[in-house]
Structures are given as structure tokens and as C-alpha cells.
Amino acid sequence: MGMFDGKKGLILGVANDRSIAWYISKFIMEQGGVCGFTHLPDKADDERKKNRMRVQKCIDDFPQQAKFLVPLNVQSDENIAEVMALAQSEFGQIDFLLHSIAFATLDDLKKDTIETSREGFKLAMEISAYSLLAVCNAAKGILKPAKLSDKREVVESGAAVLTLTYYGGERIVPGYNVMGICKAALDSCMKYAAYDLGLHGIRVNALSAGPLKTLAGSAAGVGDMQTVYDQMSPLQRCVTHEEVGRTGAFLLSEMSEGITAETMHVDGGFSEMGSPGRMLDKY
Ligand code: NAD
């Protein structure tokens, strides 16, 4: 018996086998869940169709559980609607929806934050924060509503939505720059979406992960951050992809029923430190 037996959902944001979304969805599928996947559209001149191919390679090991793989650019409402229509025809209603998407140009990430370009700011905000609202709105018709008894006890669980955030949206993390501002906006989008969808018993949460080496993570400079986490966090180490994957799956499962509008930190306790602690011993 797996904790996701009979559960179906959408996974947005696998780029390759290092993606956080992959670790969450792999755990879900190992626990019996069925998933529909999206990939970033391939460029017209890329004959190798690398974006698709990388995700296809991941899901090849799960032929029963990975139901489809289609392109998605969250900048297009039409494209989002197509993905939701496909999910509806495959699954009817869905039990979980993972949003694990962010983007800012390297040029903007490398600048001082006050030098962020107007276009770069809009692009980063659109893909990294607004897209959560757009996706929740497009999915609201297929996200399974909760069923409550006369005593307002849950008889059938409602769907759960999860997004991925980072501490750089709460505090200044030099180098995270414009993406920190996007994460602050995303955290707020998550809470307002939790309010709107809460009326139907649908939950929306965020997982704030410690630094992990992924495509997006490398662009945001996780290497330096990992050194600090190793020395400063209460656990004196960085978290692993597997740890983030398991907690992500928990937040998308019935096990977390009752939790909504919450940001759960999976960061070895780093975000609760008020001074460098043991890191000072090294100097
Ligand atoms: P990743 O590069 O594997 O995932 C980012 C995903 O965003 C990719 O799948 C990419 O295709 C997708 N994406 C970008 N632009 C898109 C668009 N226009 N339309 C649709 N999809 C688009 O890296 P990751 O680290 O797994 O990132 C996933 C999420 O986790 C991001 O929100 C990231 O900010 C967050 N996060 C990462 C870390 C870390 O250290 N890696 C820490 C905390 C939070």
C-alpha cells in the first residue's frame, strides 16, 4: 500500500533528473501515484528536442505511472489551458498539483538588485510568481474539492497545491537578488491562493528548500550558499534532494491535511538562526 495509491496529479517543473520536481514526483510515483508531466517547449531549431528528451529519460522508468508529457510555457494562458484540458481528459479531477518553476535571466541575476532591468524584472515575476496564480486559476475546475460531513469533518480530502520557494524572499541573501523579490511575491501569491481555494477545501502551501545543485540553483549561486549552510545551520549540513522530495510529497498528500497557506522550511534549520553560531568558531 502506497500513500499515493489511487491519487492523480500534475507535475510542472521537471527539467532533468536533478530537478526538485523530479525528486517529489519520483517519491509520489513510488508510492503508487499517477502523474502528468510538462517540459519547457523545445526551440524550433533544436532538432534533438533536448528539454523534452531530458524529462522523457526521467519518466521512462515509470511507464505505468507517468501518463503524459507535454510542453508548457507558463507565459501563455492558452498553453496552460491546454495542459489543464489534457489533465481533465486523462484524470477527470486531480488530487495534487506541483508548481516548481522559476526563471530570471543570468544577466539580471548577476547585477546588483537595484540595477535589474525593467524587462528582466517583469519576465522573472511573470514566470516565477504570477504563474502560480495563473495555474491555480486554470486548474480550479479540476482540483478535487473536499467533501465535509454535517459536522464539518473531512469525509473526502481535497486536492493539494505546492510551490517551491527560497529564504531569499524573506531575508536579504546577497546574490539571490531579483529572484528574492520574486520569491517574496510568490510566498504572498501562495497565501492568497490558499484563501481563494480554501473555500473548496483545496490546500496551497510552499516548501522553502535549502540550496540544492540544479539548473536553476546553479544560476542562483547555490555553491556559495551550501558552504554557509554546512557551517551555520543547526544540522551542520545541507539538505538532500531526497529530503526535499519526501517533504514535498508529504505536503501534496493527505498526510498534511489541515496544513494550508504555510511555508515549510526544509533547510536544516538555517532560516531560524539569528547569528552565525558555530560558524564563528572557524574564524
Ligand atoms: P530546475 O531548473 O530543475 O527547475 C526549474 C524549472 O522551471 C525547470 O523545469 C524549467 O523548465 C521551469 N521553467 C522555467 N521557465 C519556465 C516557463 N516559462 N514555463 C514553464 N516552466 C518553466 O531547478 P530547481 O532547483 O528544481 O527549481 C525548482 C523550483 O525550486 C524553483 O522555483 C526554484 O526557485 C526553487 N528552489 C530551488 C532551490 C535550489 O537550491 N535549487 C532552493 C529553493 C527553491
TrEMBL record:
Coiled-coil segments on the chain, per record: none
Pfam families for this protein = adh_short_C2 (PF13561)
List of residues binding NAD(+): G13, S19, I20, I101, K183
User: Per UniProt, what is one GO molecular function of this protein?
Assistant: enoyl-[acyl-carrier-protein] reductase (NADH) activity
Catalytic residues in the record: Y166, Y176
Q: What is its EC number?
A: 1.3.1.9
The UniProt keywords, alphabetically, are:
Fatty acid biosynthesis, Fatty acid metabolism, Lipid biosynthesis, Lipid metabolism, NAD, Oxidoreductase
What GO terms describe the biological role, i.e. biological process, of this protein? fatty acid biosynthetic process
Q: This protein's superkingdom?
A: Bacteria
Protein residues bound to substrate: A104
State the pathway, as annotated in the record.
Lipid metabolism; fatty acid biosynthesis
Q: Which InterPro entries match?
A: Enoyl-ACP_Rdtase_NADH (IPR014358), NAD(P)-bd_dom_sf (IPR036291), SDR_fam (IPR002347)
Provide the reaction this enzyme catalyses: a 2,3-saturated acyl-[ACP] + NAD(+) = a (2E)-enoyl-[ACP] + NADH + H(+)
SUPFAM superfamilies under this entry? NAD(P)-binding Rossmann-fold domains (SSF51735)
Family membership: Belongs to the short-chain dehydrogenases/reductases (SDR) family. FabI subfamily.
State the name under which the record lists this protein.
Answer: Enoyl-[acyl-carrier-protein] reductase [NADH]
